Amino acid sequence: MSPFDVLVVGGTHGNELNAPWLLQQWTQQPELVTTHGLKVQQVIGNPEALAANRRYIDRDLNRSFRNELLEGDGEEQELVRARELMRLYAPGGLDPCRVVIDLHSTTAAMGNCLVVYGRRPSDLALAALVQRSLGLPIYLHEGDAKQTGFLVERWPCGLVIEVGPVPQGVLKARIVEQTRLGLEACFAALAAVRSGQARMPKVMVVHRHRGSRDLPRDQLDAPSQLLHPALEGCDWQSINPSQPLTVAADGTPGVEAWCSDAVPVFVNEAAYVEKRIALSITQREVWPVQSDWCIALRELLCAV
Amino acid sequence: MSPFDVLVVGGTHGNELNAPWLLQQWTQQPELVTTHGLKVQQVIGNPEALAANRRYIDRDLNRSFRNELLEGDGEEQELVRARELMRLYAPGGLDPCRVVIDLHSTTAAMGNCLVVYGRRPSDLALAALVQRSLGLPIYLHEGDAKQTGFLVERWPCGLVIEVGPVPQGVLKARIVEQTRLGLEACFAALAAVRSGQARMPKVMVVHRHRGSRDLPRDQLDAPSQLLHPALEGCDWQSINPSQPLTVAADGTPGVEAWCSDAVPVFVNEAAYVEKRIALSITQREVWPVQSDWCIALRELLCAV
Q: Which of A165, B45, B198, B272 counts the most CB atoms within 10 A of its CB?
């Protein structure tokens, strides 16, 4: 049996309901998402967490795909599930898939965007093509030793589509529609690459991860100040270097020295409180698109 | 020992973080909230749920104050806690409080508002005075057999201050500040009533509960359509009677016949998904303020 072209994952986090709802509707109504002739598999990443309306049961599934965890003997629910997803859908698995698209939502005002992990040529080719078609911003996550083990890194090519703002546990028609459009753009790009008809852009705009900031904490480890209201909803926007990061309960602004070209993302994402991330800082860069990116993706899609 | 004038409760729902944070900051910084000479007690409603960042552990604490539950032998965590809060702070308890203010937040775009349960004169007096000072809208919850057992109903006078939108599990400085302002307005009103200097408005605007609507469900009880995007954020706004309530995944609008004066509240509140409430419908009414309301509240506050 030939491998699937694409694995689409929804519900990697169980309180992000919009992608699972889209996948369920798509199952009942196959014309809902245009696949451009690709052979697509879909799966709920963490069905137990979805049933419980919680991000995870024992640990974050989307931080569980590290080699030492996958090869270890940990029995936490998400480690067992990560190994199962690999066994089923990774290259060499029962129903192997070439590319993975992992659908997420966020409480931050990220709009519809792509997250790329590292600089694999095939990922960059796909992201560049989707940016060309829909104009989506790209968050390049790299060089962050505290946040590792993402699902998409275990496939030869994979992106996250991240859509927000939407509270955890809430279904919103606009979020579902943005997710659907992002997914269709990925399919269109992959089909075009496979058929040799993809028109790569000359450049892509990347927001490269530079670090994360937490709120100040008191002796009990609780936040002693909150994110400054002027930063709420400022994802993807350049920040005035003199803008305070935080504000105290009595209105006193915190002190902050930003680098002059800081662009925050994931501002006040609910799930990152426990990760001690009030926001992440990126640097906006314009990259020339390399011709070998598309070649790498085409080889992956056309391999027999 | 004389009773406390006011019990302030935060964290009745454990994933509504803003009020507990305000109370914690207030403890460290007593001048943060002006109490106008009132004797105030504060408490975290559901500390176990707050620690777990969940609405509740076993059942909704704010639906657990029904007589038959309080007097029964149920051992769910929230029933035990409800009895404990009564034993500690209700009239006749160890540290009795005359009035309770229960601080909540919502994922719906409710702004800063008051929720009144039923038509007790002292509640209406307090709500009318706070509406006079801050202009807050009032949701009068009554005649809803499916939603009963609210905390504030167990004290002789009590209101909910409800602030949104904010996702569950997220701290926002603006939400904290709105909560603080609402709480101070309650204190100012109560102090004015006790001293006989309260100036009651002639009328108050009430949004009276008329019913709730759920999304259509499929055979597996999952939503088969979502709330129509035109209704997102439309809390407190009159709805065109021809406005569809829902939309299908493919964009097909649902059919809906609204009454001509429907005003929705709690539109797409995350916590109400399990209660099968996509939104509630209210009717906007202008009520003359009765002179006996203020008298009832004054008697409560001045009783020895």
A: B45
CB B225 within 8 A of CB B215: yes
pLDDT tens, position by position, A90-120: 999 999 999 999 999 999 999 999 999 999 9
Tell me how far apart the alpha carbons of residues B10 and B175 are, in angstroms, rounded to a whole number.
Answer: 13
Of B22, B107, B222, the CB nearest to A167: B107
The residue of chain B nearest to residue A164, with distances taken between CA atoms, is B167
B-chain residues within 8 Å CB-CB of A249?
21-22, 25-26, 29, 32, 176, 180
For residue A265, give the nearest of A234, A219, A228, A293 by alpha carbon: A234
CB contact under 8 A, A169 and B270: yes
Structure tokens given for A119:
């600089």
Point out the residue among B165, B169, B226 whose CB comes nearest to the CB of A171: B226
**Cβ–Cβ < 8 Å for A255, A247:** no
Average pLDDT over residues B83-91: 97
Least Cα distance to A65 among A114, A41, A19, A100 occurs for: A100
**Residues in Cβ contact with A280 at an 8 Å cutoff, skipping those fewer than 6 apart:** A209, A210, A211, A212, A213, A264, A265, A266
Of B111, B113, B46, residue with least CA distance to B80: B46
In the three-class reduction of DSSP (H, G, I as helix; E, B as strand; rest coil), residue B135 is classed as coil
Q: A224-243, pLDDT tens digit by residue? A: 999 999 999 999 999 998 99
Chain A contact probe: residue of B170, B176, B184, B276 with most A CBs at under 10 A: B170
CA B206 from centroid of its chain's CA atoms: 14
Give per-residue pLDDT as tens, B5-56. 999 999 999 999 999 999 999 999 999 999 999 999 999 999 999 999 999 9
CA distance A235 to A226: 17
Nearest to A161 by CA among A103, A236, A100, A235: A103
- Kindly report the pTM of this predicted structure: 0.95
Task: Give strand ranges (E) for B118-234.
Answer: 138-141, 157-164, 203-213, 226-227
Q: In chain B, what's the furthest Cα-to-Cα distance? A: 65
DSSP symbol at A166:
-
CA–CA dist A157, B58 (Å, integer) = 42
Is there a contact between B170 and A26 if contact means CB atoms under 8 Å apart?
Answer: no
CB B214 within 8 A of CB B276: yes
Among the listed residues B10, B193, B2, the one whose alpha carbon sits nearest the alpha carbon of residue B96: B2
Q: Which residues of A touch B22 (CB under 8 A)?
A: 249
Q: How many CA atoms lie within 13 A of A189 on its CB side?
A: 28
